[in-house]
């Protein structure tokens, strides 16, 4: 899904349109931009905007587990350095009842409107009709409505339940000496003809990783703008995994990865690179939980080693057969977020010969980890380009720290990124993909003290 710089959907010119989101440059505070939401519904009694968009907070009113009611700010009260997190915020007895800021007003009969300033960033949203909380609102009953004029990027209908748009940065109103919250690297490229890649979905056939029955599985693929223009060229290849409960369209629909890749390439941080975003949640209809180490996640997806084996047997050869991509570890990488980072760690440990670069974003890994004996048995482990990244307010912070401690003990070099505004959410993973591209991806190995300086 693509959006123009200042208009994320066609401006609502008449009441015949069903919805619109318009981003306006205002040249005034608090952010320099305002966003207009307009939605038609003749029967609704109340409409909220939710499904991903969050209230704001700052560094002084949030922790790694929550941010208090008095630290939840309406975007109309934005101050430079404010950001949003996804951490839970329990209602404390001494605190007043919290009012969700994104509530639409009814005007002109069936027209619902809401206007707010917003700072730089990618925002996902849906309309919540007569329903107060997105996880309790159903598309089937009409309580959760995806903007019909700004449909999500998806492969399978129902896989994505939110639309998204991007707001630019205006340093006059958003620059902060405390925190850089400029997300313009996720804007559409300034030169679409030269630098805009192609994003699309594809399907391949494999046997199930547990129950051996043929099935069609999906992935999303990003092809750089140059792809197909240079005869015989093989392109570096990055595999990029979603988290538990997600799918291969997440990185594009919620993370705008194609824009991030376009800008990494345009600015010369990386050469033109193909990105494959596979879905691992649907490899089997009766999969056990995603298991690594001595803990598991309740989302029903296959264990990490079975996903790796399935990808090695079916996905990787299929991609190499159908696309002009590199087949050598030196120009292949694997990265992922949360449970996708668990899969990345699995690839690092047990598919070491296939990739030279690994990005573990918000890694939900658990012990046992590799150690010095592991490196002695597989010396390649010590010669890879690795980034471990997580948010300062990320609930997997302790797990990321434990993983780093294990790699330190095994004398494995890596670069680290602690996203200063980060929680376990998409603005964090966008930041980490960007810095993975800037500092690690396709850089000279081994990593050293001057890497990324």
TrEMBL record:
Signal sequence range: 1-19
Keywords: Hydrolase, Signal
GO molecular function terms listed in the Swiss-Prot or TrEMBL record: acyltransferase activity, transferring groups other than amino-acyl groups; hydrolase activity
Superkingdom as given in the UniProt entry: Eukaryota
Protein name (database record): Alpha/Beta hydrolase protein
Source organism (scientific name): Lasiosphaeria hispida
InterPro entries xref list: AB_hydrolase_fold, Esterase-like, Mycobacterial_A85_antigen
Pfam families attached to this UniProt entry: Esterase
């Amino acid at each position: 899904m693509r959006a123009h710089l200042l208009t994320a959907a066609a401006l609502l010119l008449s009441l015949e349109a069903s919805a619109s989101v318009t981003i306006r440059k205002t040249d005034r505070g608090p952010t320099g931009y305002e966003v207009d939401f307009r939605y038609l519904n003749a029967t609704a009694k109340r409409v909220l905007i939710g499904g991903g968009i969050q209230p704001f907070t700052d560094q002084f009113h949030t922790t790694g587990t929550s941010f208090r009611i008095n630290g939840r700010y309406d975007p109309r009260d934005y101050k430079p350095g404010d950001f949003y997190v996804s951490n839970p915020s329990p209602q404390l007895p001494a605190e007043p009842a919290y009012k969700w800021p994104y509530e639409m007003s009814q005007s002109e009969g069936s027209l619902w409107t809401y206007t707010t300033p917003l700072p730089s960033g990618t925002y996902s949203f849906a309309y919540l009709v007569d329903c107060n909380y997105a996880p309790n609102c159903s598309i089937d009953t009409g309580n959760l409505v995806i903007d019909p004029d700004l449909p999500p990027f998806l492969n399978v209908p129902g896989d994505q339940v939110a639309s998204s748009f991007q707001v630019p940065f205006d340093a006059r109103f958003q620059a902060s000496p405390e925190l850089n919250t400029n997300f313009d690297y996720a804007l559409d490229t300034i030169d679409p003809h030269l630098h805009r890649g192609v994003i699309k979905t594809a399907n391949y056939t494999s046997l199930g990783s547990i129950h051996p029955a043929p099935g069609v599985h999906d992935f999303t693929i990003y092809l750089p703008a140059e792809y197909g223009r240079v005869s015989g060229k093989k392109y570096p290849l990055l595999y990029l995994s979603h988290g538990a409960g997600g799918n291969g369209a997440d990185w594009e629909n919620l993370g705008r990865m194609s824009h991030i890749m376009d800008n990494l390439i345009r600015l010369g941080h990386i050469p033109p690179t193909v990105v494959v975003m596979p879905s691992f949640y649907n490899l089997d209809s009766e999969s056990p939980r995603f298991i690594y180490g001595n803990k598991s996640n309740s989302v029903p997806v296959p264990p990490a080693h079975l996903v790796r084996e399935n990808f090695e047997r079916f996905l990787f050869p299929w991609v190499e057969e159908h696309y002009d991509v590199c087949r050598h570890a030196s120009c292949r990488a694997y990265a992922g977020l949360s449970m996708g980072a668990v899969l990345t760690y699995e690839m690092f440990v047990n598919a070491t010969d296939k990739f030279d670069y690994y990005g573990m974003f918000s890694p939900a890994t658990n012990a046992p980890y590799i150690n010095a004996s592991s490196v002695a048995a597989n010396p390649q482990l010590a010669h890879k380009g690795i980034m471990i990244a997580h948010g300062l307010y990320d609930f997997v912070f302790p797990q990321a720290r434990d993983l780093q401690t294990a790699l330190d003990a095994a004398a494995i070099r890596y670069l680290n990124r602690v996203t200063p505004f980060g929680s376990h959410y998409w603005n964090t993973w966008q930041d980490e993909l960007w810095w993975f591209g800037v500092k690690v991806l396709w850089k000279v190995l081994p990593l050293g003290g001057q890497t990324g300086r």
